Amino acid sequence: MQSWTTGDKFAGLKMIPPGVHVIHYAASEASSQTVGGLCSCFLDLKPASVHVRRWCAQTETLEMLQEDEEERYARGVRSFSFDEQLGPYPLNKYEMWVQLSRYISPAVADRLNPISKCIRASTADAAAPAHVNDGQGNA
User: Fold this and answer.
1) Cβ–Cβ under 8 Å, residues 92 and 15
2) Taking Cα atoms as reference points, which of 63, 79, 51, 82 lies closest to residue 25?
3) Among 27, 104, 111, 124, who pairs with 60 as Cys (CB 3.0-4.6 Å)?
């Protein structure tokens, strides 16, 4: 799993290999080191596709754009207008990703995504210890 801390100029990632990916993100406050709600989603990328989302500070989510606006950004990406603001996918992790991603199909990933396309967890959920029930009421 790769993670990045981003700044104001960050506009996304480029050179992401085609296939199923899990996008996981959370807002954070740099001055206090606090992290907001966590969100994950599955995304099935096709060769040469461009997916554009806009960060909404109010909901702390990545939101889809109108089709015409997304297409304008996609044209900008394809013409390298945003290239210096896009971070490269870490190709040194490519082989590991291929090994892991072969176990999930786009159809399964689509069924796992909720309607909202965001699997949410609060920071309290993420910090809480996991308890396993043995099936007989014992945690």
Assistant:
1) no
2) 63
3) 27
